[in-house]
Write a structure and sequence with these properties.
The structure holds two protein chains of two kinds. In chain A, 36% of the residues lie in helices and 16% in strands. The radius of gyration of chain A is 16 Å and the shape is globular. Chain B folds into three domains: 152 residues, Aldehyde oxidase/xanthine dehydrogenase, molybdopterin binding domain (Aldehyde Oxidoreductase, domain 4, 2-Layer Sandwich), CATH 3.30.365.10; 186 residues, Aldehyde Oxidoreductase, domain 3; 329 residues, Aldehyde Oxidoreductase, domain 4 (2-Layer Sandwich), CATH 3.30.365. A seven-stranded mixed beta sheet of chain B has the order 3-7-1-15-12-13-14. Chain B has a six-stranded mixed beta sheet with strand order 9-10-18-17-16-11. In chain B, strands 19-27-28-31 form a four-stranded mixed beta sheet, sandwiched between helices. The mean pLDDT of chain B is 97. Chains A and B meet through helix 2, helix 3, helix 4 and helix 5 of A and helix 1 and helix 16 of B.
């Protein structure tokens, strides 16, 4: 048995037939081949599977695909504009804010959401917001540096 | 002249793939007709297996193959294990931990595999179990393995002393001087028992493997491993194949930290694929990862004799490492831990013993630090207790006793490249260490602060082998063929820097392969922080061979001697006459008649040594180099709740020479944070062998909220004569000193109240305070 849903994935309208027990993560990976979003814990605590649903960060391992009906879903594959990386991706590159890379898509999606909600986060706000995204390689110093660089550049834009 | 590729923070080669989500991990690989595997696991920690009936599962719609013990009969020996072949592919006569694999299903869909597993009927006869190392060594303890066959043909097994009865798998022992005389000469004697907990590696990518058999009989395996060469060897042995008929391919690996060094899923995945005649993918759930590997818990008794002036004169250590149900590299973990269990100190009289002990808990395996944190925790905590009782500054006490350049270590090794004193001085400065005042009583209050220091010494796998091939292309680009795995440490970037430097090429012209054992040569493993050192030396040697060939071609073409030539920015030129110069395409044209062909360089880097298993002393070298690092921490303890918060922490590691300093810092920061979790809250909990907290909901990993406000990685460089450009490994350097630095800071905050068991849970802090308060 499947349930039809309509959802916009990375800006493209899709009509999908999903199983009632299928998670959004499974749908993205298995049905749509979007494998940048990965599973780390399966219970919504590690943040590796973070995607944006209507702009809000969500653990896609906990959200049923049917709940994405009528929603806008953005994954790591939807951030870059053609060859041009999203500023958050660029900042993670510049600041070496990754090691094994497994948590990186989720960490980047959460950072995109953080900066959308608060373009000038304090370090305490950044720590709080990103504390649901675990990096076992321990790359937090560089992640904080990337967020600082992004907040700095948006501050520079605003003052310009 | 081109600039050096060494010592610079090159952007990472794997960056674009990782920030776009394009990086391919094993579970992302999909093949036509691929099936999904699911395992049936034992609910009992120890039981005889009376009956396994898979007929209902086999008949279930969508199931293609079920593997039970009945499918092992045609294998030469259905057991695997890197050192002791004690782990059956599926349980044969017994299960030895709650979670042991009894059978497995390959089906068209994941949910079908899961449903079918529930249809397999198993009858168990529960047996009494042993759940910690000290219980397991009692004479009447139930024994897990009556017969043990060690793996032949490994470089490390000749250093090991195996036991053949009881639950002790192996013993390491070394001594120096005269222990009794040493203690007799001591003014004060300290004796304590310390413990560390079982820990999860916490690699966010769960174990994953994909296997298929080519029609002509070759086995192909994609796997998330740190050790493609040994996976190939083990699969070849299990299935009775020549090694050339096993191909192991390793995509990006989402963290390993030791957890992916040895065969885990590969044998059973290959067996399922053989029976199903289709590709089979097996990806573990997080809960299953908890049952698949972890860090050895240890209990350590340490006794130290000291003179009133702080001179250490005698030390005796007994360390018991709980290796779980199967040995894996437990014997080497215990040996390596035992070697350094006296610490990086000059102590004339020592007796150090370590045991690797089987218990009915999940198998362990290598874990970042490899046996060192378990012994560093006791010797560094006790060092501070000694300082407190003798009224000596803990910094001065350490500096007084530290090993120095050229000292002979307890193993007999002459120590080289010893930057430990500098590391300690650096970290003490980083937290504004104030000498003896740090052990003075704190002003009373609900929240108290304290600072602590610790140092460590660790060995690296010796002997070992790394082999590399460099292929220079006619356009002046080069490829390094290596079985080293990119597990996040930056191998693709740092090895390219080493090859680029030797060939004087721009680093972006050098590419590094992913492991594919059909193509890439042998490597001992991507572990023991050995890749930059050992594979770096192999890559340097292979590039050096190509360099010699280029110079020879250039000498003929330019009609001069090779010694008069130098490489520069993709060309060969006459030293002092750079106008006489041929680019690499021109050199290829001179040699091959056109800019075509390949120049190949090859190098096998072998470290020699190990220890005599009877004396525990080095045969040559026990360790080709020694890790040395120091940590300083400042904490805040809430005496009402028992909560410990780390305010600042600094860890300094002697990198020898940092090939890519940013990557060294990243590795050091990662190992700092891993041990910070182990110090404060990480522990796997079992009740009579049953896992209690096998998920990331109950077992927390450090998050950004746990990262101390001041968190500093420091690099010290004392070049090692054997390392490429002087480099040593850095990837595990903080696994050891971080825990005791925090523990010592807590003790200084609490006026000497000592916690001896990790992690430093709030309830333990409160209990220690209550015990102190109850004393007259």
């Amino acid at each position: 048995m499947t349930i039809p849903i309509k959802t916009a994935i990375n800006g493209r309208e899709r009509e999908l037939a999903v199983k009632p027990n299928q998670t959004l993560l499974e749908c993205l990976r298995d049905e749509l081949g979007l494998r940048g979003t990965v599973e780390g814990c399966g219970v919504g605590v590690c943040g590796s599977c973070t995607v944006l649903v209507d702009g809000r960060p969500v653990s896609s391992c906990l959200l049923l695909a049917t709940n994405a009906d009528g929603k806008q879903v953005t994954t790591i594959e939807g951030l870059a504009d053609g060859e041009r990386l999203h500023p958050v991706q660029e900042a993670f590159l510049q600041c070496h804010a990754f090691q094994c890379g497994y948590c990186t898509p989720g960490m980047i999606m959460a950072t995109v959401a953080l900066l959308a909600a608060n373009s000038q986060p304090t370090e305490a706000e950044t720590r709080d917001y990103l504390s649901g995204n675990i990096c076992r390689c321990g790359t937090y110093v560089e992640v904080l540096a990337a967020v600082r660089a992004l907040a700095g550049s948006s501050a520079a834009e605003e003052s310009a | 002249m081109s600039t050096s590729a060494i010592g610079i923070e090159r952007p990472r080669v794997d960056g674009p793939a990782k920030v776009t989500g394009a990086a391919v991990y094993t579970a992302d690989v999909e093949l036509p007709g691929m099936l999904y595997a699911k395992a049936l696991r034992s609910p009992h920690p120890h039981a005889r297996l009376l009956r396994v009936d898979a007929s209902k599962a086999e008949a279930y719609s969508g199931v293609i193959a079920v593997v039970t013990r009945d499918d092992l009969r045609d294998l030469p020996l259905p057991y695997f294990g890197p050192i002791v072949k004690d782990q059956p592919i599926v349980a044969i006569d017994r299960v030895r931990f709650a979670g042991d694999v009894v059978a497995a299903v390959a089906a068209e869909a994941r949910d079908v595999a899961e449903e079918a597993v529930g249809l397999i009927e198993v009858e168990y006869e529960p047996l009494p179990g042993v759940f910690d190392a000290l219980s397991a060594i009692q004479p009447d303890a139930p024994v897990l393995h009556e017969q043990r066959q060690t793996s032949a043909g490994r470089l490390d097994t000749p250093s090991l002393r195996f036991e053949q009865a009881g639950n002790v798998c192996s013993v390491y022992h070394v001594e120096d001087g005269d222990l009794a005389a040493g203690f007799a000469a001591a003014d004060e004697i300290f004796e304590d028992v310390y413990s560390t907990a079982k820990l999860q590696h916490g690699h966010l990518e769960p174990h994953a493997a994909l296997a298929y058999w080519e029609p002509a009989g070759k086995l192909v395996v994609y796997t998330a491993t740190q050790n493609p060469s040994y996976i190939r060897i083990q699969l070849a042995e299990l299935f009775g194949l020549p090694q050339s008929q096993v191909r192991v391919i390793v995509p990006f690996v989402g963290g390993g930290y030791g957890g992916k060094v040895h065969a885990r899923l590969e044998p059973l995945t290959a067996l399922l694929a053989r029976k199903a005649r289709r590709p089979v993918q097996w990806v573990l759930t997080r809960e299953e990862v908890f049952l698949t590997g972890h860090c050895h818990a240890a209990t350590v008794r340490i006794r130290t004799g000291v003179k009133r002036d702080g001179t250490l004169v005698a030390r005796e250590v007994e360390a018991y490492y709980d290796t779980g149900a199967y040995a894996l590299t437990g014997p080497t973990t215990a040996k390596n831990g035992g070697e350094v269990s006296g610490g990086p100190y000059r102590i004339p009289n020592q007796s150090l013993t370590s045991y690797c002990v089987y218990t009915n808990t999940p198998p362990t395996g290598p874990f970042r630090g490899f046996g060192t944190p378990q012994v560093c925790w006791p010797y560094e905590c006790q060092m501070d207790d000694i300082a407190r009782r003798l009224e000596i500054d803990p910094l001065a006490l350490r500096q007084k006793n530290l090993v120095r350049e050229g000292d002979t270590f307890v193993t007999g090794d002459a120590l080289q490249s010893v930057g430990l004193s500098d590391c300690l001085a650096e970290v003490a400065r980083a937290i504004d260490w104030q000498g003896r005042a740090e052990q003075a009583p704190r002003p009373p209050g609900p929240v108290v602060r304290g600072k602590g220091l610790a140092v460590m010494i660790k060995t690296t796998m010796t002997p070992s082998n790394s082999t590399a091939t460099v292929r220079l292309n006619a356009d002046g680009s080069a490829t390094l063929l290596t079985s080293s795995v990119e597990i996040g440490q930056g191998t693709l970037t740092s090895l390219a820097q080493i090859v680029a430097e030797e060939l004087r090429l721009p680093p972006e012209r050098v590419s590094v392969t992913f492991p594919d054992t059909d193509v890439t040569p042998f490597d001992q493993s991507t572990s023991s922080s050995r890749t930059v050192f050992s594979m770096g030396r192999a890559a340097l040697g292979a590039a050096g061979e190509v360099r010699q060939q280029l110079l020879a071609i250039g000498a003929r073409a330019l009609e001069t001697a090779p010694n008069d030539l130098e490489l520069d920015d993709g060309a060969v030129q006459v030293r002092g006459a750079p106008s006489r110069r041929l680019t690499i395409p021109q050199l290829f044209a001179a040699h091959f008649g056109a800019p075509v062909g390949s120049l190949l360089g090859h190098h096998s880097f072998q470290t020699q040594g190990g220890v005599n298993p009877t004396t525990g002393k080095a045969k040559g070298r026990a360790s080709v180099y020694f890790f040395l690092s120091a940590c300083a921490a400042e904490v805040e303890v809430d005496v009402e709740t028992g909560k410990v918060r780390v305010l600042r922490i600094a860890n300094a590691v002697d990198a020898g020479k940092a090939i890519n300093p940013r990557q060294c810092h990243l590795q050091n920061e990662g190992s700092m944070l891993t041990e910070l979790g182990a110090a404060l809250f990480e522990e796997m909990v079992f009740d009579e062998g049953q896992p209690i907290n096998a998920s990331f909901v109950e077992y927390m990993l450090p998050s950004l909220e746990d990262q101390p406000q001041q968190f500093r990685s420091l690099l010290v460089e004392h070049p090692h004569p054997l390392g490429p450009f002087g480099a040593k490994g850095v990837g595990e350097a903080a696994l050891g000193p971080v825990g005791p630095a925090i523990g010592n800071a807590v003790a200084n905050a609490l006026d000497g109240v000592r916690l001896r068991d990790l992690p430093l849970r709030p309830d333990r802090v409160l209990a220690a305070l209550a015990a102190k308060g109850a004393q007259p």
